[in-house]
Specification:
single chain; 397 residues; alpha/beta
């Protein structure tokens, strides 16, 4: 995902420095070219050899290091960088960079970088809340630096409060958002639905389906990484919501209908990946459930047809994509859905094909439009999401 991208990691003196070894490793596994800069104080918490082993590049500490990998080291490496992350960022380094001071390899290099710079503060709560530190953070933000709000929790000093550096997984998401993909969806508003819905029978039981929400969540994440402003309307799932995406949690089909139709006219692209329960009980109360000889029956009615409504109310220039889950005649049934509901594209899969459908991390899709059918091989749901977005972009040009 990050092949051909150069990531600079700046590490300052903080006990949280050890966590950046995990971040460097994760970036390396995504094929990024990772370079690590450390302050002298940082070397008291973790050895530079750790990062040299993980990245395959020399870890730079001394501005006057006699290493001729770069002609003028702090300038050349700055030119190579696609993104810089300072994590953990101490109050000292935040203050120096905010006020234009460059007295070591890390601060000198950051000053020379023209790419996006991201800071992850990590310090004692009292230091973080000090008005001077807050002013320096505001100054960085004024000049276009991104500052991640630290987490709150138990700190190494024994205090509890703000100042805790986010986990490496979160820091990685900030880097991916910046450089993982070309921002070909910048300026677009995309609405994605995901997961199942639940229709209550009584206070204990419900009607639902096997949808995990993984496909919809993958689409939302990939669209965000490509620059879109994404709203994810999600039924109940066990998936961690993607960062930088507005998530609207819902439970029933009616909840999802109201959430979607309430914002649909503001969207450029709508992708309905949710598997909405088809039926709901007409009445939700214990006395409406009929029991006889261990048999239970309840009167049902159809739930709201979200796609049909969206197709009927589609605004000019809006792109509408639905999903089709079939066990037979996948192409025929999906084409009928395309026509009947006024869709621009259907992403269809056969639930009987190995690796496709609910729960798994892979999918096998056929993208169906008015003019063609594009069959995709077995691939991860994130890769499938990218293919769906590629097709949508090509059709909207």
């Amino acid at each position: 995902m990050l092949k051909g991208k150069t990531v600079l990691l700046g590490i300052t003196g903080s006990i949280a420095a050890y966590k950046i070894a995990y971040l460097a490793s994760a970036l390396q596994k995504l094929h990024a070219d990772v370079h690590v800069l450390m302050t002298e104080n940082a070397t008291n918490f973790i050895n530079p050899i750790t990062f040299e082993t993980l990245t395959g590049n020399k870890c730079l500490v001394d501005t006057f290091d006699r290493n001729f990998q770069f002609q003028v080291e702090h300038v050349s490496i700055a030119k190579k960088a696609d993104v810089v992350m300072i994590a953990p960022a101490s109050a000292n380094v935040i203050g120096k960079i905010a006020n234009g001071l460059a007295d070591d390899m890390l601060t000198t290099t950051v000053m020379a970088c023209r790419c996006r710079k991201i800071f992850a503060p990590a310090m004692n709560t009292a230091m973080y809340e000090n008005p001077i530190v807050q002013d320096n953070i505001k100054k960085l933000q004024h000049y276009g630096y991104e500052v991640i709000t630290p987490a709150s929790g138990y700190l190494a000093c024994g205090d509890t409060g703000a100042g805790k550096m986010p986990e490496p997984e979160t820091l990685l998401e900030y880097i991916l958002r910046e450089v993982a993909f070309e921002k070909d969806l910048s300026g677009k508003k995309i609405l994605v639905t995901a997961g199942p819905t639940q229709e209550a029978i009584d206070p204990v039981r419900c009607l639902t389906n096997h949808s995990s929400g993984k496909m919809g969540y993958a689409i939302a994440k990939m669209a965000m990484l490509r620059g879109a402003e994404v709203t994810l309307v999600s039924g109940p799932t066990a998936i961690e919501p993607p960062l930088f995406v507005k998530v609207v949690p819902v439970t029933s089909a009616r909840d999802m209908f109201e959430a979607v139709t309430g914002v649909s006219d503001q969207q450029d692209i709508i992708i309905k990946a949710a598997a909405v329960a088809d039926y709901r009980p007409k009445q939700v109360s214990e006395d409406k459930v009929k029991k006889k000889d261990d048999q239970v029956s309840i009167e049902l009615e159809r739930t709201d047809d979200i796609l049909k409504y969206l197709g009927q109310h589609k605004k000019n220039g809006q792109f509408l994509c639905g999903f089709s889950m079939e066990t037979k005649d996948m192409i025929g049934n999906s084409r009928a859905k395309l026509e009947k509901k006024n869709l621009d594209m259907v992403a269809a899969n056969n639930l009987k094909v190995e690796g496709a459908g609910f729960q798994g991390d892979t999918n096998v899709l056929t993208l169906i439009t008015q003019d063609e059918e594009v069959s995709l091989p077995l691939m991860s749901k994130e890769d499938a999401a990218l293919k769906i977005l590629d097709k949508i972009i090509s059709l909207m040009k």
